[in-house]
Amino acid sequence: MNTATASLAEYAELGRTAYAMIGEMYPICRSITGKGVRDTLDILQRRIPLTRTEIASGTPVFDWTIPLEWSISAAYINDPAGNRIVDFREHNLHVVNYSVPVRARMPLGELRLHLHTLPAHPDWIPYRTTYYREAWGFCMTQRQCDALPDGDYEVCIDSRLAPGSLTLAECVVPGAVADEVLIYAHDCHPSLCNDNLAALALATLLAQRRALSTSRHYTWRFVFAPATIGSIAWLQLNEARVGLIRHGLVLASLGDRGALTYKRSRRGNAEIDRVCDYIVTTRHAGSSEDFSPYGYDERQFCSPGFNLPVGRLTRTPNGRYAEYHTSADNLDFVTAHALSDSLRACEAALTLLDTNGRYLNLSPRCEPRLGPRGLFNLVGGHSPGDFEHAVLWVLNQSDGESDLLAISQKARLDYSIVASAAAALVNAGLLRRLP
Ligand code: ZN
């Protein structure tokens, strides 16, 4: 059996560890390329080994091109009296991410064309990007924007767009088989905690704990890369070997107080879909929903030319909470408790994948004698318990068609009992796992 599960107290501690990691990554100004991503990976790399691949700007990846590398050292707006009213150093969301450099004086009317606010949440700063369109801009609170006096403003964005590279990072934890479980988390958002520092922290802890596990069936591949262009680039580089991916999960937004939400793969009935449906709905009071071609990097993995069995696990999905892509997605918005709960669900799902499988009853003609093999320790006449029921169900259903999860659902028994019954039957020589 896989031992990569922990007690609730241990998961609570891991939730606090994830929260502390988020706090460490929060101040960094990330983008789809550049130093912010690399500095973030340095933090993850203190816990897990990462292999980095730098892809040069200008490299074509499917229908896209690796963009120039963006760096920024300062950005501010001075009002007509010379007061600095917006400063990138105070919050990196103040600058539209990927802004081209600008240094100019302009009247308020012209400046307003470059300002972004959230009228419905007048104290929050929005998160805006201009990745694939040359532009510049500032984000500020509505309250601050409303108070701007007329006059000429001095604006400065000291940024640079130059040939460089896009960084992909991977951690591979080998298992007994070369078949892989892919875990993907995007790492391009600046100071936003739920989207997606929560998943970066949790994927790192999953990899770290996975490496310590004594029993590993699948090889697990953790990929940390920018959203959209990162998964597109990864798929371009790995096109020849995506056939090894048996199951996959995109992790995002796993730290908010909402319930877990699993989004099924495009296939809809892949094993990852059945496993996550089961874990999220029966053990975490969450919900599942069908695939849609909008969201995070599952869009690329589930594009028709790949159609990989890759689902997505979040708590509240993107765009369904007011704090999404705003300065309110901060350290108050995520909780150690939610992180702990998310980690427990991820680990349960991945452990289930590792033990789930189709088995063959090696003594299929009539029931084999279970008592002498220590599998049916009952005084005659007593009703069997869950374990004994699970042994009977596994033997009866293991004709090579049903996997253990299907058997547990048919038998209405918890998966862990069915899995331990299967392990006992394998030990007794009555059952064999099919490849
Ligand atoms: Zn996002």
Compact description:
The protein is α/β, with parallel strands linked by helices. It has helices at 8-25, 35-45, 108-112, 142-146, 193-212, 229-237, 271-283, 298-301, 336-355, 386-397, 404-411, 415-427; strands spanning 51-56, 60-61, 64-65, 69-78, 84-87, 102-107, 115-116, 138-139, 152-162, 165-173, 180-186, 219-225, 245-251, 261-263, 287-289, 310-314, 358-361, 399-403, 431-433.
Give the secondary structure arrangement, pairings included.
Layout: H1 8-25, H2 35-45, E1 51-56, E2 60-61, E3 64-65, E4 69-78, E5 84-87, E6 102-107, H3 108-112, E7 115-116, E8 138-139, H4 142-146, E9 152-162, E10 165-173, E11 180-186, H5 193-212, E12 219-225, H6 229-237, E13 245-251, E14 261-263, H7 271-283, E15 287-289, H8 298-301, E16 310-314, H9 336-355, E17 358-361, H10 386-397, E18 399-403, H11 404-411, H12 415-427, E19 431-433
Parallel strand pairs: 7-8, 11-12, 11-13, 13-16, 14-15
Antiparallel strand pairs: 1-10, 2-3, 4-5, 4-9, 6-9, 10-12, 14-16, 17-18, 17-19
Helix pairs in contact: 1-5, 1-9, 5-9, 7-9, 10-11, 10-12, 11-12
The structure holds zinc ion (ZN).
Zinc ion (ZN) is lined by residues 189, 195, 325.
Written description of the protein model:
There is one protein chain. By secondary structure, the protein is of the alpha/beta class. It folds into three domains: 255 residues, 3-Layer(aba) Sandwich (Aminopeptidase); 94 residues, Domain of unknown function DUF2172 (Glucose Oxidase, domain 1, 3-Layer(bba) Sandwich); 76 residues, Arc Repressor Mutant, subunit A. 32% of the residues lie in helices and 23% in strands. An eight-stranded mixed sheet has the order 1-10-12-11-13-16-14-15, with helices on both faces. A four-stranded antiparallel sheet has the order 5-4-9-6. Helix 10 crosses helix 12 and helix 11 crosses helix 12. The two termini are 17 Å apart. The mean pLDDT is 96. Bound molecules: zinc ion. Zinc ion (ZN) binds next to loops. The site of zinc ion has 3 residues, from loops.
